[in-house]
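Anyone? Bumping this.
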Amino acid sequence: MSKDDAHHPEPPTDLEARALALESLLVERGLLTTAAVDSVVAKFEQDIGPTLGARAVAHAWVSPDYKRRLLSDAKSALTEIGITEHQAEELIVVENTSSVHNVIVCTLCSCYPWMVLGLPPTWYKSAPYRSRAVLEPRTVLREMGLELPQQIDVRVWDSSADIRYMVLPMRPSGTENWTEDELAAVVTRDCMIGVAVPRVPASVG
Amino acid sequence: MTDIRSEIAYLEGIPRKNGELVFSAPWQGRVFGMAIALTAERFQWETFRSLLIAEIAAAPEREYYASWVAALERLVVEPNVVSDSDLATRRAEFVAMQRDEIY
């Protein structure tokens, strides 16, 4: 239990425990599948959380000063742009560069920066992603459609009960004259988890 | 399943931002998802909705999704699908960190 304790020094709150008990029993009795719950959540939650993270990324792309603040003190930087609701855990933003690519994972459970990225996607909570992202990140990324050149250093950040991570992707070329809203639109949830990079549609820019 | 969006459109007090639903913690999303998924087949949405309305009326100051938890518990306990003691035992196991399922 020691590894688990490191992730969850705190027991769930009363409401969390009641929600867990319901889902656990209903699944066990065959009245519900987690996949059915996942699909409802995905339908409703898709765009809400990631929109906040994308705004911060776009602002960091246009303002080097803001980027510096986002990387050094993410929560204060988010507050600056009106994102004032925070989760209790520390949030660290890690920057992709031409030589480093970052990926986030939670190897033991499903810790996730949901305040900026919404609810975690199902695959993020899956055992294969959680175990393989650390062992063979390049292979996992390739399977998810992201081929990284060999010279790029891949860093995997394992979230914990105290610290959550978010990736600051690289600004795609050809977006020099874009507005912040246009930039934010190409920053997907997967880009901020680090399993994708922002793509500029061929017809634009 | 009927269109979920039209069903929740009639829910008063559901937290939204720019017209979209917002969850302020992951468990709230799970609770929301469970209610919608359960009422797709086995239970009637109207049954859940009236339980929810009763729970909100009984404790109007309570956190919004806490009322969803209470309504869900009543939805499954009343027809004896799951007993109160099953829920209490399972809850205690999670609090004691004897279980580590991930949802």
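Late reply, but here is one note on the structure posted above: Confidence is low (pLDDT under 50) at residues 1-5 of chain A.
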